[in-house]
From TrEMBL:
<feature type="domain" description="Pyrroline-5-carboxylate reductase catalytic N-terminal">
    <location>
        <begin position="7"/>
        <end position="100"/>
    </location>
</feature>
<dbReference type="GO" id="GO:0055129">
    <property type="term" value="P:L-proline biosynthetic process"/>
</dbReference>
<protein>
    <submittedName>
        <fullName>Pyrroline-5-carboxylate reductase</fullName>
    </submittedName>
</protein>
<keyword id="KW-0560">Oxidoreductase</keyword>
<dbReference type="GO" id="GO:0004735">
    <property type="term" value="F:pyrroline-5-carboxylate reductase activity"/>
</dbReference>
<dbReference type="InterPro" id="IPR008927">
    <property type="entry name" value="6-PGluconate_DH-like_C_sf"/>
</dbReference>
<dbReference type="InterPro" id="IPR028939">
    <property type="entry name" value="P5C_Rdtase_cat_N"/>
</dbReference>
<comment type="similarity">
    <text>Belongs to the pyrroline-5-carboxylate reductase family.</text>
</comment>
<dbReference type="Pfam" id="PF14748">
    <property type="entry name" value="P5CR_dimer"/>
</dbReference>
<dbReference type="InterPro" id="IPR036291">
    <property type="entry name" value="NAD(P)-bd_dom_sf"/>
</dbReference>
<dbReference type="InterPro" id="IPR029036">
    <property type="entry name" value="P5CR_dimer"/>
</dbReference>
<feature type="domain" description="Pyrroline-5-carboxylate reductase dimerisation">
    <location>
        <begin position="270"/>
        <end position="316"/>
    </location>
</feature>
<feature type="domain" description="Pyrroline-5-carboxylate reductase dimerisation">
    <location>
        <begin position="187"/>
        <end position="242"/>
    </location>
</feature>
<dbReference type="InterPro" id="IPR000304">
    <property type="entry name" value="Pyrroline-COOH_reductase"/>
</dbReference>
<dbReference type="Pfam" id="PF03807">
    <property type="entry name" value="F420_oxidored"/>
</dbReference>
<keyword id="KW-0521">NADP</keyword>
Length: 328
């Protein structure tokens, strides 16, 4: 194993588990290339059973890898990065999934960096007699994944810190493509990503629940109504994301995420309004139902929900910023 291919995780909870399982499942990294540390021994054991390295300290992860995903709760970030300072430097890329903690706060918490890690890999645990120093601050990338990442269908926003390179961003996109789609955005837009994609699964679940309730009201058995509602939303989402019937061998009908180079000449998927018109026959059942939704203001309510969640994400980010700054 080369050091350049190793990926480390500080925190081994649900999101970290989804990511490292996705990396192995899709062949992006081998299990032996991954290092997972969590204060909880059971989380380390869960990684170890997959053939993933599960060292006894975060310092070993930093010594063994150049790319580290920080997968801890926001209030734990200052302590984690402060403890890592003796072991990280400009040779490291830190990718944070901590909600609300800005790249500026992450860079401040990570410090200037001493940057010591093995020159040839760390198969043994841990014999670090032959090291190379990389003084200077680590590079930072901040990401906002969502819970469908747990089933490989996530939507992730990516923002680069001050010292992060284009290669760092592309590597981050590659890693998070293991659990869905990843889109590069300006950091000031991450609150909107939170309001839409981060909170969006709850809105979609509410709609699926209501759709199923409608089916039950109309006489369907509950299990059938629930399955039909969920599959209807799943299939419709695929129609929105898929161009040309999904038959393209290069992209599978799924266009490149925002900011990524296209891999083929597939046309973009049809607009949602066009897809909706295709199933809305004049004087038919669908348009009758749509009229009720429009009369009840469903569209405006959803827009307002995203706006409210975005505002709240911004507020929580400001709180996290103050707490992070105060604990350094």
């Amino acid at each position: 194993m080369s050091l350049s291919s190793a990926i480390g995780f500080i925190g081994g909870g649900q999101m970290a588990t989804a990511i490292y399982r996705g990396l192995v499942r899709k062949g992006i990294r081998k299990a032996a290339d991954l290092y997972v540390y969590d204060v909880n021994a059971s989380a380390r054991q869960a990684a170890s059973t997959l053939g993933i390295n599960a060292p006894s300290s975060a310092a070993i992860v930093a010594e063994s890898t150049r790319v580290i995903l920080i997968c801890v709760k926001p209030d734990a970030v200052p302590t984690v990065l402060r403890d890592l300072r003796p072991n990280i430097g400009s040779g490291h890329l830190l990718i944070s999934v901590a909600a609300g903690v800005t790249t500026r706060a992450l860079e401040a918490a990570a410090g200037s960096g001493l940057g010591v890690f093995p020159s040839g890999g760390a198969e043994a645990e841990p014999d670090f007699k032959h090291t190379v120093s990389h003084p200077g601050p680590p590079r930072i990338v901040r990401v906002m994944p969502n819970t469908p990442s747990l089933v490989g269908e996530g939507a992730t926003g990516i923002s680069a810190g001050t010292n992060a390179t284009g290669e760092d961003v592309e590597l981050t996109r590659e890693l998070f493509s293991a659990v869905g789609q990843a889109h590069v955005v300006d950091e000031k837009m991450l609150d909107a990503v939170t309001g839409l994609a981060g909170s969006g699964p709850a809105y979609a679940l509410l709609f699926i629940e209501a759709l199923a309730d409608g089916g039950v009201f109309a006489g369907l058995p509950r299990p059938a109504a629930r399955a039909l509602a969920a599959q209807t939303v799943l299939g419709t989402a695929r129609m929105v994301l898929t161009a040309d019937g999904g038959g393209c061998s290069a992209c599978g009908g799924v266009p490149a995420p925002a900011g990524a180079a296209p891999v083929c000449s597939c046309p973009p998927p049809p607009h949602t309004a066009e897809l909706r018109d295709r199933v809305s026959s004049p004087a038919g059942t669908t348009v009758a139902g749509l009229k009720v939704l429009e009369d009840r203001g469903v569209r405006g309510a959803v827009i307002s929900a995203v706006a409210a969640a975005t505002d709240r994400a911004r507020e929580l980010g400001e709180i996290a910023q103050r707490e992070t700054s105060g604990s350094q």
